[in-house]
Write a structure and sequence with these properties.
The complex is a heterodimer of chains A (about 250) and B (about 180). Chain A is of the alpha+beta class and about 250 residues long. Helix content of chain A is about 40%, strand content about 30%. In chain A, the strands form three sheets. In chain A, strands 4-5-6-10-9-8-7 form a seven-stranded antiparallel β-sheet, covered by helices on one side. In chain A, strands 1-2 form a two-stranded antiparallel ribbon. The longest helix of chain A has about 50 residues. Chain A starts with a helix and ends in a 6-residue tail after the last strand. Chain B has about 180 residues and is an all-alpha fold. In chain B, about 75% of the residues lie in helices and about 0% in strands. The longest helix of chain B has about 35 residues. The N terminus and C terminus of chain B are likely disordered. Classes of the chains: A alpha+beta (about 250), B mainly alpha (about 180). At the A-B interface, α1, α2 and α3 of A face α1, α2, α3, α4 and α5 of B.
Protein backbone atom coordinates (compact mmCIF):
# COMPACT_ATOMS: atom_id res chain seq x y z
CA UNK A 1 0.00 0.00 0.00
CA UNK A 2 1.60 3.26 -1.08
CA UNK A 3 1.63 6.43 1.00
CA UNK A 4 -1.18 8.20 -0.80
CA UNK A 5 -3.49 5.20 -0.36
CA UNK A 6 -2.65 5.07 3.39
CA UNK A 7 -3.22 8.83 3.72
CA UNK A 8 -6.51 8.49 1.84
CA UNK A 9 -7.66 5.70 4.19
CA UNK A 10 -6.61 7.67 7.27
CA UNK A 11 -8.54 10.68 6.01
CA UNK A 12 -11.66 8.59 5.36
CA UNK A 13 -11.38 6.92 8.76
CA UNK A 14 -11.16 10.33 10.42
CA UNK A 15 -14.11 11.55 8.39
CA UNK A 16 -16.12 8.50 9.39
CA UNK A 17 -15.20 8.95 13.07
CA UNK A 18 -16.35 12.56 12.91
CA UNK A 19 -19.55 11.53 11.18
CA UNK A 20 -20.26 8.98 13.91
CA UNK A 21 -19.36 11.55 16.59
CA UNK A 22 -21.87 13.89 14.97
CA UNK A 23 -24.57 11.21 15.16
CA UNK A 24 -23.55 10.72 18.82
CA UNK A 25 -23.92 14.44 19.41
CA UNK A 26 -27.41 14.44 17.94
CA UNK A 27 -28.28 11.34 19.93
CA UNK A 28 -27.11 12.98 23.19
CA UNK A 29 -29.24 15.97 22.28
CA UNK A 30 -32.19 13.68 21.68
CA UNK A 31 -31.79 12.03 25.10
CA UNK A 32 -31.86 15.44 26.79
CA UNK A 33 -34.91 16.49 24.77
CA UNK A 34 -36.69 13.29 25.83
CA UNK A 35 -35.86 13.98 29.47
CA UNK A 36 -37.07 17.54 29.19
CA UNK A 37 -40.35 16.33 27.71
CA UNK A 38 -40.82 14.12 30.78
CA UNK A 39 -39.61 16.73 33.23
CA UNK A 40 -42.85 16.74 35.19
CA UNK A 41 -42.57 13.05 35.85
CA UNK A 42 -38.97 12.88 37.03
CA UNK A 43 -39.12 16.11 39.00
CA UNK A 44 -41.88 14.69 41.14
CA UNK A 45 -40.18 11.39 41.79
CA UNK A 46 -39.16 10.76 45.40
CA UNK A 47 -35.61 9.66 45.92
CA UNK A 48 -35.49 7.06 48.71
CA UNK A 49 -33.56 8.18 51.78
CA UNK A 50 -31.57 4.96 51.62
CA UNK A 51 -30.07 6.07 48.29
CA UNK A 52 -28.97 9.42 49.71
CA UNK A 53 -27.56 7.66 52.78
CA UNK A 54 -25.69 5.24 50.56
CA UNK A 55 -24.27 8.09 48.50
CA UNK A 56 -23.11 9.96 51.60
CA UNK A 57 -21.31 6.85 52.85
CA UNK A 58 -19.84 6.17 49.43
CA UNK A 59 -18.75 9.78 49.13
CA UNK A 60 -17.03 9.62 52.51
CA UNK A 61 -15.17 6.46 51.51
CA UNK A 62 -14.27 8.03 48.20
CA UNK A 63 -12.91 11.07 50.01
CA UNK A 64 -10.86 8.89 52.33
CA UNK A 65 -9.43 7.05 49.35
CA UNK A 66 -8.62 10.33 47.64
CA UNK A 67 -7.04 11.70 50.82
CA UNK A 68 -4.88 8.60 51.10
CA UNK A 69 -3.84 9.01 47.48
CA UNK A 70 -3.08 12.70 48.06
CA UNK A 71 -1.09 11.85 51.16
CA UNK A 72 0.94 9.30 49.22
CA UNK A 73 1.55 11.79 46.42
CA UNK A 74 2.76 14.39 48.90
CA UNK A 75 4.93 11.85 50.68
CA UNK A 76 6.49 10.70 47.43
CA UNK A 77 7.10 14.30 46.33
CA UNK A 78 8.79 15.12 49.64
CA UNK A 79 10.84 11.95 49.44
CA UNK A 80 11.93 12.80 45.90
CA UNK A 81 12.95 16.34 46.94
CA UNK A 82 14.81 14.99 49.96
CA UNK A 83 16.67 12.43 47.85
CA UNK A 84 17.63 15.09 45.30
CA UNK A 85 18.84 17.37 48.08
CA UNK A 86 20.71 14.52 49.73
CA UNK A 87 22.41 13.48 46.50
CA UNK A 88 23.35 17.08 45.66
CA UNK A 89 24.90 17.70 49.09
CA UNK A 90 26.74 14.40 49.01
CA UNK A 91 28.02 15.11 45.55
CA UNK A 92 29.26 18.52 46.69
CA UNK A 93 30.91 17.11 49.81
CA UNK A 94 32.47 14.17 48.05
CA UNK A 95 33.94 16.32 45.32
CA UNK A 96 35.09 19.20 47.54
CA UNK A 97 35.81 17.89 51.04
CA UNK A 98 38.76 15.54 51.34
CA UNK A 99 37.83 14.26 54.80
CA UNK A 100 34.29 13.50 53.71
CA UNK A 101 35.52 11.70 50.64
CA UNK A 102 37.78 9.57 52.78
CA UNK A 103 34.94 8.74 55.09
CA UNK A 104 32.71 7.84 52.23
CA UNK A 105 29.55 6.16 53.33
CA UNK A 106 27.37 3.95 51.30
CA UNK A 107 23.80 5.12 51.22
CA UNK A 108 21.03 2.74 50.45
CA UNK A 109 17.75 4.33 49.60
CA UNK A 110 14.71 2.13 49.40
CA UNK A 111 11.58 3.80 48.25
CA UNK A 112 8.64 1.53 48.76
CA UNK A 113 5.01 1.99 47.96
CA UNK A 114 3.96 2.83 51.47
CA UNK A 115 7.02 4.59 52.85
CA UNK A 116 10.47 5.88 52.12
CA UNK A 117 13.31 4.22 53.93
CA UNK A 118 16.79 5.60 53.93
CA UNK A 119 19.50 3.50 55.50
CA UNK A 120 22.91 4.84 56.31
CA UNK A 121 25.27 1.92 56.32
CA UNK A 122 28.88 2.52 57.27
CA UNK A 123 30.91 1.07 54.46
CA UNK A 124 32.54 -2.13 55.66
CA UNK A 125 34.32 -2.42 52.36
CA UNK A 126 36.31 0.67 53.19
CA UNK A 127 39.35 0.28 51.03
CA UNK A 128 40.79 3.75 51.09
CA UNK A 129 43.66 4.44 53.41
CA UNK A 130 45.19 7.64 54.63
CA UNK A 131 48.73 8.55 55.45
CA UNK A 132 49.92 8.44 59.05
CA UNK A 133 50.28 11.68 60.96
CA UNK A 134 53.49 13.56 60.32
CA UNK A 135 54.00 11.68 57.07
CA UNK A 136 54.93 14.89 55.25
CA UNK A 137 56.42 14.65 51.79
CA UNK A 138 56.34 10.88 52.00
CA UNK A 139 54.51 8.37 49.88
CA UNK A 140 51.69 6.32 51.30
CA UNK A 141 49.24 3.70 50.03
CA UNK A 142 45.79 5.07 49.35
CA UNK A 143 44.33 1.58 48.88
CA UNK A 144 44.45 -1.22 51.41
CA UNK A 145 42.29 -4.36 51.06
CA UNK A 146 39.34 -5.01 53.32
CA UNK A 147 40.24 -6.21 56.82
CA UNK A 148 43.76 -4.79 56.96
CA UNK A 149 44.70 -2.24 59.56
CA UNK A 150 47.80 -0.18 60.05
CA UNK A 151 49.78 -1.72 62.91
CA UNK A 152 53.01 0.24 62.70
CA UNK A 153 54.58 3.21 60.99
CA UNK A 154 57.97 4.77 61.45
CA UNK A 155 60.37 7.24 59.88
CA UNK A 156 63.90 6.17 60.65
CA UNK A 157 66.68 8.05 58.91
CA UNK A 158 66.54 7.27 55.19
CA UNK A 159 63.74 4.73 55.65
CA UNK A 160 60.04 5.28 56.22
CA UNK A 161 57.73 2.30 56.54
CA UNK A 162 54.16 1.35 57.30
CA UNK A 163 53.03 -2.17 58.17
CA UNK A 164 49.48 -3.45 57.86
CA UNK A 165 47.99 -6.74 59.05
CA UNK A 166 44.59 -8.40 59.19
CA UNK A 167 43.04 -10.75 61.73
CA UNK A 168 44.36 -13.81 59.88
CA UNK A 169 47.91 -12.62 60.22
CA UNK A 170 48.34 -11.64 56.57
CA UNK A 171 50.65 -8.70 56.14
CA UNK A 172 51.40 -5.79 53.88
CA UNK A 173 54.66 -3.92 54.22
CA UNK A 174 55.23 -0.61 52.55
CA UNK A 175 58.67 0.97 52.64
CA UNK A 176 60.40 3.87 50.98
CA UNK A 177 64.14 4.46 50.97
CA UNK A 178 66.23 7.32 49.81
CA UNK A 179 68.27 6.06 46.92
CA UNK A 180 71.64 5.94 48.61
CA UNK A 181 70.49 2.96 50.64
CA UNK A 182 71.44 -0.49 49.43
CA UNK A 183 68.67 -3.09 49.43
CA UNK A 184 68.99 -6.85 49.36
CA UNK A 185 66.07 -8.99 48.21
CA UNK A 186 66.03 -12.76 48.43
CA UNK A 187 65.23 -13.99 44.93
CA UNK A 188 66.39 -17.58 45.39
CA UNK A 189 63.85 -19.92 43.79
CA UNK A 190 61.66 -16.90 43.21
CA UNK A 191 59.87 -15.88 40.02
CA UNK A 192 61.01 -12.42 38.95
CA UNK A 193 59.23 -10.37 36.32
CA UNK A 194 58.68 -6.80 35.14
CA UNK A 195 55.44 -4.92 35.78
CA UNK A 196 54.39 -1.30 35.50
CA UNK A 197 53.27 0.78 38.45
CA UNK A 198 51.69 4.03 37.33
CA UNK A 199 53.69 3.75 34.09
CA UNK A 200 56.94 3.20 35.96
CA UNK A 201 58.80 -0.04 35.38
CA UNK A 202 58.91 -2.15 38.52
CA UNK A 203 60.20 -5.58 39.52
CA UNK A 204 57.84 -8.21 40.81
CA UNK A 205 59.23 -11.06 42.89
CA UNK A 206 56.89 -13.95 43.66
CA UNK A 207 58.06 -16.50 46.20
CA UNK A 208 55.82 -18.86 48.11
CA UNK A 209 52.90 -16.83 49.47
CA UNK A 210 54.85 -13.60 49.31
CA UNK A 211 54.90 -10.95 46.61
CA UNK A 212 57.38 -8.13 46.47
CA UNK A 213 57.30 -5.14 44.19
CA UNK A 214 59.91 -2.43 44.07
CA UNK A 215 60.64 0.45 41.80
CA UNK A 216 62.22 3.88 41.68
CA UNK A 217 59.87 6.77 42.24
CA UNK A 218 61.39 10.27 42.05
CA UNK A 219 64.34 10.21 44.46
CA UNK A 220 63.19 7.11 46.32
CA UNK A 221 63.04 3.36 46.07
CA UNK A 222 59.58 2.09 46.86
CA UNK A 223 59.09 -1.36 48.26
CA UNK A 224 55.78 -3.17 48.71
CA UNK A 225 55.56 -6.66 50.15
CA UNK A 226 52.40 -8.68 50.71
CA UNK A 227 51.79 -12.06 52.27
CA UNK A 228 48.75 -14.13 51.41
CA UNK A 229 47.41 -11.34 49.21
CA UNK A 230 46.55 -12.05 45.59
CA UNK A 231 48.73 -10.74 42.77
CA UNK A 232 46.00 -8.48 41.41
CA UNK A 233 45.43 -6.98 44.85
CA UNK A 234 49.18 -6.50 45.33
CA UNK A 235 49.42 -4.62 42.04
CA UNK A 236 46.36 -2.57 42.96
CA UNK A 237 47.97 -1.69 46.29
CA UNK A 238 51.18 -0.65 44.55
CA UNK A 239 49.30 1.46 42.02
CA UNK A 240 47.55 3.35 44.81
CA UNK A 241 50.77 5.05 45.90
CA UNK A 242 50.37 8.75 46.59
CA UNK A 243 52.60 11.51 47.84
CA UNK A 244 51.43 13.20 51.01
CA UNK A 245 52.55 16.72 50.22
CA UNK A 246 53.26 18.95 53.22
CA UNK A 247 51.73 22.41 53.41
CA UNK A 248 55.15 23.95 52.71
CA UNK A 249 55.66 22.04 49.50
CA UNK A 250 52.20 22.85 48.06
CA UNK B 1 3.57 23.14 45.27
CA UNK B 2 2.94 19.90 43.37
CA UNK B 3 1.33 18.37 46.43
CA UNK B 4 -0.90 21.41 46.80
CA UNK B 5 -1.98 21.17 43.18
CA UNK B 6 -2.70 17.45 43.60
CA UNK B 7 -4.81 18.22 46.66
CA UNK B 8 -6.78 20.90 44.83
CA UNK B 9 -7.33 18.52 41.91
CA UNK B 10 -8.64 15.76 44.19
CA UNK B 11 -10.90 18.18 46.03
CA UNK B 12 -12.31 19.23 42.68
CA UNK B 13 -12.94 15.57 41.83
CA UNK B 14 -14.78 15.00 45.08
CA UNK B 15 -16.94 18.03 44.53
CA UNK B 16 -17.62 16.92 40.99
CA UNK B 17 -18.97 13.56 42.13
CA UNK B 18 -21.19 15.16 44.74
CA UNK B 19 -22.44 17.78 42.33
CA UNK B 20 -23.22 15.13 39.72
CA UNK B 21 -25.29 13.21 42.21
CA UNK B 22 -27.19 16.23 43.46
CA UNK B 23 -27.84 17.55 39.95
CA UNK B 24 -28.89 14.36 38.21
CA UNK B 25 -30.08 11.87 40.83
CA UNK B 26 -33.78 12.45 40.13
CA UNK B 27 -33.71 12.02 36.39
CA UNK B 28 -31.29 9.09 36.63
CA UNK B 29 -33.49 7.40 39.18
CA UNK B 30 -36.47 8.04 36.90
CA UNK B 31 -34.65 6.49 33.90
CA UNK B 32 -33.73 3.39 35.92
CA UNK B 33 -37.19 3.03 37.42
CA UNK B 34 -38.85 3.53 34.04
CA UNK B 35 -37.00 0.46 32.73
CA UNK B 36 -37.04 -1.75 35.81
CA UNK B 37 -40.36 -0.77 37.38
CA UNK B 38 -38.90 -1.60 40.76
CA UNK B 39 -37.59 0.93 43.29
CA UNK B 40 -34.99 -1.37 44.86
CA UNK B 41 -33.56 -2.39 41.53
CA UNK B 42 -33.48 1.23 40.38
CA UNK B 43 -31.62 2.14 43.56
CA UNK B 44 -29.08 -0.64 43.02
CA UNK B 45 -28.50 0.50 39.47
CA UNK B 46 -27.92 4.12 40.53
CA UNK B 47 -25.43 2.96 43.17
CA UNK B 48 -23.62 0.80 40.65
CA UNK B 49 -23.62 3.63 38.12
CA UNK B 50 -22.05 6.11 40.54
CA UNK B 51 -19.38 3.62 41.55
CA UNK B 52 -18.49 3.29 37.87
CA UNK B 53 -18.75 7.01 37.13
CA UNK B 54 -16.35 7.79 40.01
CA UNK B 55 -13.66 5.82 38.18
CA UNK B 56 -13.99 7.95 35.06
CA UNK B 57 -14.57 11.41 36.48
CA UNK B 58 -11.84 12.78 34.26
CA UNK B 59 -14.13 12.21 31.30
CA UNK B 60 -16.53 14.81 32.65
CA UNK B 61 -15.39 18.36 32.14
CA UNK B 62 -18.57 20.27 32.88
CA UNK B 63 -21.39 19.26 35.23
CA UNK B 64 -24.40 21.12 33.93
CA UNK B 65 -24.37 20.46 30.21
CA UNK B 66 -26.22 18.24 27.78
CA UNK B 67 -23.14 16.16 27.10
CA UNK B 68 -22.72 15.13 30.75
CA UNK B 69 -26.44 14.65 31.23
CA UNK B 70 -26.74 12.29 28.26
CA UNK B 71 -23.55 10.45 29.30
CA UNK B 72 -25.01 9.64 32.72
CA UNK B 73 -28.35 8.63 31.23
CA UNK B 74 -26.68 6.26 28.77
CA UNK B 75 -24.75 4.56 31.57
CA UNK B 76 -27.77 4.25 33.84
CA UNK B 77 -29.94 3.03 30.98
CA UNK B 78 -27.43 0.37 29.90
CA UNK B 79 -27.00 -0.84 33.49
CA UNK B 80 -30.77 -0.90 33.92
CA UNK B 81 -31.27 -3.04 30.82
CA UNK B 82 -28.47 -5.26 32.03
CA UNK B 83 -30.22 -5.64 35.38
CA UNK B 84 -33.55 -6.22 33.67
CA UNK B 85 -32.15 -9.01 31.50
CA UNK B 86 -30.41 -10.52 34.48
CA UNK B 87 -33.65 -10.68 36.42
CA UNK B 88 -35.61 -12.05 33.52
CA UNK B 89 -32.75 -14.44 32.82
CA UNK B 90 -32.87 -13.46 29.18
CA UNK B 91 -30.09 -12.98 26.71
CA UNK B 92 -30.55 -9.78 24.69
CA UNK B 93 -31.07 -10.48 21.02
CA UNK B 94 -29.34 -8.00 18.83
CA UNK B 95 -31.03 -6.61 15.80
CA UNK B 96 -28.52 -7.83 13.28
CA UNK B 97 -26.89 -11.21 13.73
CA UNK B 98 -26.23 -12.07 10.14
CA UNK B 99 -22.80 -10.51 9.96
CA UNK B 100 -20.25 -9.15 12.36
CA UNK B 101 -17.76 -8.27 9.72
CA UNK B 102 -16.99 -4.67 9.11
CA UNK B 103 -15.46 -5.05 5.68
CA UNK B 104 -18.04 -3.03 3.81
CA UNK B 105 -19.21 -0.80 6.60
CA UNK B 106 -16.44 1.74 6.32
CA UNK B 107 -16.88 2.30 2.62
CA UNK B 108 -20.65 2.37 2.96
CA UNK B 109 -20.59 4.91 5.78
CA UNK B 110 -17.97 6.85 3.92
CA UNK B 111 -20.42 7.41 1.04
CA UNK B 112 -22.82 9.13 3.42
CA UNK B 113 -20.59 11.11 5.75
CA UNK B 114 -21.32 14.39 4.00
CA UNK B 115 -25.02 14.14 4.86
CA UNK B 116 -24.42 15.80 8.21
CA UNK B 117 -27.87 17.37 8.19
CA UNK B 118 -29.22 13.83 8.56
CA UNK B 119 -27.43 13.34 11.90
CA UNK B 120 -30.54 13.77 14.03
CA UNK B 121 -32.67 11.62 11.75
CA UNK B 122 -30.01 8.86 11.79
CA UNK B 123 -29.67 9.02 15.56
CA UNK B 124 -33.42 8.62 15.92
CA UNK B 125 -33.58 5.79 13.41
CA UNK B 126 -30.71 3.95 15.06
CA UNK B 127 -32.16 4.32 18.56
CA UNK B 128 -35.51 3.03 17.33
CA UNK B 129 -33.86 -0.09 15.89
CA UNK B 130 -31.76 -0.70 18.98
CA UNK B 131 -30.99 1.96 21.58
CA UNK B 132 -27.99 -0.16 22.64
CA UNK B 133 -26.38 0.50 19.26
CA UNK B 134 -26.93 4.24 19.53
CA UNK B 135 -25.61 4.20 23.10
CA UNK B 136 -22.44 2.32 22.28
CA UNK B 137 -21.67 4.37 19.16
CA UNK B 138 -22.17 7.56 21.15
CA UNK B 139 -19.92 6.40 23.98
CA UNK B 140 -17.26 5.44 21.48
CA UNK B 141 -17.27 8.34 19.04
CA UNK B 142 -18.88 11.26 20.84
CA UNK B 143 -17.50 10.62 24.33
CA UNK B 144 -14.29 9.13 22.89
CA UNK B 145 -14.10 6.27 25.37
CA UNK B 146 -11.92 3.27 24.66
CA UNK B 147 -13.49 -0.19 24.28
CA UNK B 148 -12.06 -1.12 27.69
CA UNK B 149 -13.63 1.92 29.33
CA UNK B 150 -17.00 1.26 27.68
CA UNK B 151 -16.86 -2.38 28.79
CA UNK B 152 -16.09 -1.35 32.34
CA UNK B 153 -18.91 1.21 32.42
CA UNK B 154 -21.69 -0.93 31.01
CA UNK B 155 -20.64 -4.41 32.12
CA UNK B 156 -19.42 -5.82 28.81
CA UNK B 157 -16.21 -7.51 27.82
CA UNK B 158 -13.91 -5.57 25.49
CA UNK B 159 -14.58 -8.15 22.75
CA UNK B 160 -18.31 -7.75 23.22
CA UNK B 161 -17.97 -3.97 22.94
CA UNK B 162 -16.07 -4.43 19.69
CA UNK B 163 -18.72 -6.80 18.29
CA UNK B 164 -21.55 -4.45 19.25
CA UNK B 165 -19.79 -1.49 17.69
CA UNK B 166 -19.48 -3.42 14.44
CA UNK B 167 -23.14 -4.35 14.57
CA UNK B 168 -24.11 -0.76 15.32
CA UNK B 169 -22.14 0.43 12.30
CA UNK B 170 -23.74 -2.23 10.13
CA UNK B 171 -27.17 -1.16 11.36
CA UNK B 172 -26.36 2.41 10.51
CA UNK B 173 -25.12 1.36 7.07
CA UNK B 174 -28.40 -0.41 6.48
CA UNK B 175 -30.38 2.68 7.52
CA UNK B 176 -28.26 4.83 5.24
CA UNK B 177 -28.62 2.56 2.22
CA UNK B 178 -32.36 2.17 2.70
CA UNK B 179 -32.91 5.90 3.04
CA UNK B 180 -30.13 6.84 0.61
CA UNK B 181 -32.29 7.46 -2.42
CA UNK B 182 -34.65 9.71 -0.53
CA UNK B 183 -32.10 12.50 -0.25
CA UNK B 184 -30.77 12.24 -3.75
Amino acid sequence: MNKSVIADKEYKDKLEDNFLAHIGFEYADMICDDLDRNKDQWQEIEIPDSLDTWFNDFHKLYMQRMNRRTFMKRLMTKAAIFILFFVAINYFLITNVEAYRKQFIKTVVNIQQSFTQIDFIPNDNQNSASSPEGWDDLYYLSYIPKGFKMIENKISGPVAYINYANDKGDKIAFQQYYMHVTMQIDTEEAEVSDVYVNNILAKLVKKDDSKIMYWIQDDRVIYVQTRNVSLSETIKIANSIKLNESENSK
Amino acid sequence: MLALLAMVEDKAKRDKLEELYITYRKELYYVAYHILQNYHDAEDVIQNAFIKISKFLDKISEIKCKKTRAYLVIIVRRLSFDRYNEKKRTVPIDFMDETEEEADSISSLDDHVLHLERGKELAEALSKINSGYADILTLKYFYELSNDEIGDLINLTTENVSVRLTRAKNALRKILSEGGNRNE
